[in-house]
Amino acid sequence: MKEPIVELLGISPEDARASLRAFFKARNEAEFRTKQVEEWLFDRHARSFNEMTNLPSNLQVELGNEFSLTELESTYVARSSDGTVKHLWRLDDGERVESVLIPTKDRLTLCLSSQVGCALGCQFCATGHFGFRRQLRPAEIVAQYSNSSRVALHDFERPITNIVYMGMGEPLANLDSVINSLNTLHRGFRKGARRITISTVGLVPGILKLAQRPEPFELAISLHAPLHELRLELMPIEKRYPLPDLFEALRSFQRQKKRRISFEYTLIDGVNDEPKLARALADIARGLTCFVNLIPFNPIPAISEWRASSPSKIARFSEVLTERGIQNAVRRPRGRDIAAACGQLRLARKAAVSVNKKEGL
Ligand code: SF4
Q1: How far, in Å, is the centroid of ligand 1 from the Cα of 344?
Q2: 39 and 156 share a domain?
Q3: Shared domain check, 195 and 153
Q4: What DSSP designation does 236 have?
Q5: What's the distance, Cα to Cα, between the start and end of the chain in Å?
Q6: Ligand 1 centroid from CA 137, angstroms
Q7: Per-residue pLDDT tens over the stretch 190-218
Q8: Which of 97, 113, 114, 125 to mutate to test the pocket of ligand 1 (most atoms within 8 A of CB)?
């Protein structure tokens, strides 16, 4: 029986190297062929073996019979007036996920997805609204980076500097794939661990597992409410891992990793933006070395009437945190004109497709 095709981006870089070595050895090819393929994979972001022009064409064909490069098809690209670029990628079974390139003066950050949809149902999130479709394979996570790198080099003329697992899905609910993808990004593509952030709503077992990793990956927590009842309304995960359990895990993470932890706090008008909540946040974060990112809510008209808090309320919230010694910053929402928050583009495209279908377009 024929061996299944191996996704080179889905196995560890060490296993990819061993498989390529065995492949070339079986054909009496020189050792340096392995290095050539690795360069095409990890430095030149090749989309197909045909692009590997320093390999003879028969080897290109034979490589394609044994390995795949997990090409994603870009089905839609949205470019914001602020420079943010969002891609909708079609996977091999027709499912779609988003990734976003966010340029600033010093950085080019890629926000990538870890699942198709999400089962966790956060009330402020378009992805949560779809429900869960399936897990992404490690290669599908890494391929978002590889494909986006080509866009980055072409459109921005610079490489991606930072990666955040903040797109569709909860990374720690797809832990094995995420860990495998981290291995490839870090050891294959040589992205520094301090430049890779895993963002979670607070899945305690996953946080504890990340704490055991030797690499200093960054951890961000989607917090959004500092009190149990309010967080439960916004984020059903609070029922499984309530705030005291989450913060115990974070203290343990910090003891082991000695790394600052980031909190993401989306400010929704009249929902979670009262100064007393800033005081409560400061209370629960006491003793942790942390940084709070305050993010004005990005409205999702199709599913909610919530609006962003006013600039004055956001400023007051920030002040209260600062007065209590909690470092924080108000983040400018990026890509609002292209629905750049998690899951919004997929939702917008789905709505557009249904309208077109209804109108016979
Ligand atoms: S915020 Fe994250 S965890 Fe919550 S529903 Fe959206 S994708 Fe899932």
Answers
A1: 12
A2: no
A3: yes
A4: T
A5: 45
A6: 18
A7: 999 999 999 999 999 999 999 999 999 99
A8: 125
Residues 213 and 111 in one domain: yes
Confidence of residue 345 (pLDDT cuts 50, 70, 90): low
Please report whether residue 297 resides in a domain: yes
Q: Per residue in 286-306, is it b (16+ CB within 10 Å) or e — as a string?
A: eeeebebebbbbbbbeebeeb
Q: Is 238 in the pocket of ligand 1 (CB under 6 A)?
A: no
What is the span of the domain harbouring residue 48?
6-68
What local confidence, expressed as pLDDT, does residue 256 receive? 96
Q: Are residues 215 and 265 in the same domain?
A: yes
As a whole number, the mean pLDDT across the chain is 92
Position 263 scores a pLDDT of 98
Does residue 97 line the site of ligand 1, with CB under 6 A?
no
Cα–Cα dist 178/168, whole Å = 13
Distance (Å, whole) CA 161 – CA 158: 9
For the chain, what is the domain count?
Answer: 2
Q: Is the domain of 77 the same as that of 61? A: no
> Is residue 34 domain-shared with residue 96, that is, in the same domain?
no
Nearest to 141 by CA among 107, 173, 108, 116: 116
Q: Do residues 124 and 218 share a domain?
A: yes
Asked which of 68, 88, 122 is the last residue of a domain, the reply is: 68
Q: How far is the CA of 128 from the centre of ligand 1 (A)?
A: 5
Atom of ligand 1 nearest to the CA of 170: 3
